[in-house]
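Structure tokens
________________
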Amino acid sequence: MTGLIVLGILLGVSTILGLYGVVLYNGFVQMKNDIDKAWSNIDLLLKQRYDELPKLLKVCEGYMQHEQRTLEAVIRARSQLSSAGSGAEQLAAQNFLSETLRSLFAVTENYPELKADAGFRQFANRISEIEDQIADRRELYNDYVNIYNIRLDQLPDLVIARLFNFTARKLWATDPAHREDVQISFSAVEKGNNERRDLPG
């Protein structure tokens, strides 16, 4: 009789542990799916930025003949994305492209005629909007990754993680000096345009 009771207790405990393990496993699967979905949303924006760059550079080349080094840096950064692998290499390539874009937009401050160009304004604004969206989605992606990675090192999650080979994901970190979004100001140009409109014909 005592043996049956002990056996029943062991079966009950085993069932509870098994169900708990299933819950933990499903939790890791859900977190991985959340991370993958967050990255897919970012990837769509990265592709849009990639496609918009040639249009922006074509306009810039017409005004910035003396800034070939800056333009070539952006072109080189864009081409590196094509050969970049996945994971850390891809993230580094994306960060490098953002950095070169930031340098390009900083240099355009010295070219008021370029900033007044309708095509440049359109493409620059589009890329700035994309950068803003990338920054927002990058924050969400990093939140998901951070929670997932913490769970990997905590008991009892750690047991399930190692048993089913769940591995840590890499955060999309950026250089602290380059965390500001890529932006360009058209305020001076707009002011000048308004003044010209106010002048008598």
In short: The chain has a mean pLDDT of 81. The helical segments are 2-61, 68-83, 88-107, 112-116, 118-152, 157-163, 187-198. The chain has seven helices and no strands.
